[in-house]
Design goal:
The protein has nine helices and three strands. It is mainly alpha-helical.
C-alpha cells in the first residue's frame, strides 16, 4: 500500500510555487534551500528566528555562506531580517508576487493596500505577512551601527588629527545606514566588523585607504583576507 502525505499533519510546510518557478535561477540552489529552512521554521505570520549557525549546520555550509545568500533573498524582496538587541535575528517572509504579475514591478507588502494585516486564509505557504510592523523607524539603522560608525571616524581622527571633516546630519545617517548594510545585507557579524575597523586603523597601508564606511564595505573581503593572514601568522590576536 502506498502512503501519501496528509495535509493535516503538522510536519508539513508550504512555500509559494513562484519561489521555484520565478526565483530559483536568481537565488540559486543555496538560496532556495535557505528560504525553505526559513519557511519550515516560520509561524503562520511568516516570522522565524533560526540562528545562522543552525541554518549552516542543517545545510552543511559556512555561516558566511548563509549570510551571503540571506542577502540575496533580501535583494529580491523575498525576506526581510531585523536584529533584536543586536543578537537574535528575526526573519520575515514577504509577500510573493504571483506568476501572472511577472512583468509588473515587485513590491513589498507594505506598498500594497493589504498591508494593514494578515490575510485571512493565507498561511505560511503564501508567505504573506504584515510588513508594516517590521521596521517602524524612519531610518534603517540601530545603535550598534551608530557605535561602529563613530568608532571608525574616531580612529581616523586619531590617525589624522589635521584632517577636519564636518558631516551634515544627512551624511551621518547615510553612514549609519551603510554600516547597517554591512551587517544586514552582507551578513557580517558586528563583532567581526569592529575587529576589522580596529585592525584597518592600525595597519600602515589600510588606515590611509579606509577612512569612510563606504570604503570599509567595499574593501571588507580584502580586509578580512589580510587580517586573517596576520592572525594565522600570529602577528595579531584573533577576534575570538
Amino acid at each position: 500500500m502506498i502512503e501519501v502525505r496528509d495535509l493535516r499533519n503538522g510536519d508539513w510546510y508550504w512555500i509559494h510555487k513562484t519561489i521555484i518557478e520565478k526565483y530559483s535561477k536568481k537565488i540559486g540552489a543555496i538560496g532556495l534551500a535557505i528560504y525553505n529552512i526559513l519557511a519550515s521554521h516560520s509561524n503562520q505570520e511568516g516570522i522565524c528566528f533560526p540562528s545562522q549557525k543552525r541554518i549552516a549546520d542543517m545545510l552543511d555550509i559556512s555561516e558566511w555562506t548563509v549570510g551571503k545568500y540571506v542577502g540575496v533573498l533580501e535583494k529580491y524582496n523575498l525576506i526581510r531580517r531585523e536584529r533584536e538587541n543586536h543578537q537574535k535575528t528575526i526573519y520575515y517572509l514577504l509577500k510573493i508576487a504571483p506568476l501572472s504579475d511577472q512583468g509588473a514591478p515587485e513590491k513589498h507588502l507594505s506598498q500594497t493596500k493589504k498591508a494593514d494585516g494578515f490575510n485571512k486564509g493565507e498561511h505560511l505557504g503564501l508567505t504573506k505577512v504584515n510588513n508594516n510592523n517590521i521596521n517602524k523607524n524612519k531610518y534603517n539603522y540601530n545603535s550598534k551601527d551608530q557605535e561602529l560608525t563613530d568608532l571608525l571616524y574616531d580612529l581616523v581622527k586619531q590617525n589624522y588629527p589635521f584632517i577636519i571633516e564636518r558631516k551634515t546630519e544627512k551624511q551621518k545617517i547615510a553612514d549609519y545606514e551603510e554600516m547597517n548594510r554591512i551587517n544586514r545585507i552582507d551578513g557580517r557579524d558586528y563583532k567581526i566588523i569592529e575587529f576589522i575597523i580596529r585592525w584597518s586603523q592600525q595597519d600602515d597601508f589600510w588606515k590611509q585607504n579606509i577612512r569612510s564606511v563606504s570604503k570599509l564595505r567595499k574593501q571588507f573581503d580584502t580586509l578580512m583576507i589580510r587580517a586573517k593572514s596576520q592572525v594565522d601568522k600570529k602577528v595579531i590576536k584573533d577576534y575570538d
